[in-house]
Amino acid sequence: MQKRMIHEALFSSGQVSKLTRNARLLYIGMIVLGDDGGRLRGTPAFLRSRIFPYNDDISLDSIEKWRDEIVKEKLIMLYGSGLDEFISHPNWKKYQTLRSDRFKDSKLPPPNERDPKSEYSKEFEMFWSSYPRKIGKGFAWKAWKKISGVKKIYEVIIESVEKHKTKDSQWKKEKGVFIPHPATFLNQSRWEDEFNATLSGSGKYKGL
After folding, report:
1. Quick one: CATH architecture of 8-95?
2. Where are the beta strands (DSSP E) in 52-129?
3. In what order do the strands lie in the sheet with 39-41?
4. What is this structure's pTM?
5. Residue-wise over 115-124: b if at least 16 C-beta within 10 A, else e?
């Protein structure tokens, strides 16, 4: 069983002090669960099963909310989407002493892994600039490439993002913790949510 160090500096950290009590406990659990590369799975279901196994009253939404508090304070990096969400500790080597003869390479992908030969398109960068929750850019790019062949679809998507930002009450709650990851937004065609009357043919982009 792996053993991890909880450094005393954690308890006086300004970043940690901004977390709610439950988010602090979740963060400590994330440190304990990190592999030798400082990575772990990041889905709410996994985190709840490993850190709060006896607390059936804790919802997945609560876990996601606390997790996103930790992301906001830049204590962890969250990347991927859906069932493939991962976490990486950015200061892992600074606070963990790992013996080289016992070190095991991580089996999880590194943050922002994508095809090094690919370049983000101008349209995708426009979407990324507009989208308020910037997590998992490489995964969002993969999702974007699947739909970018549709004529002017990027205009519809960006217009929808802007509408969600101003009109969607879910996006405004809890400082944006309920905003879906950009890859999820794209993979699930979420730009059609709430504004179907405009996007289905009665608005500016009729006939796309």
Report:
1. Orthogonal Bundle (1.10)
2. 77-79, 86-88
3. 39-41, 86-88, 77-79
4. 0.56
5. eeeeebeebb
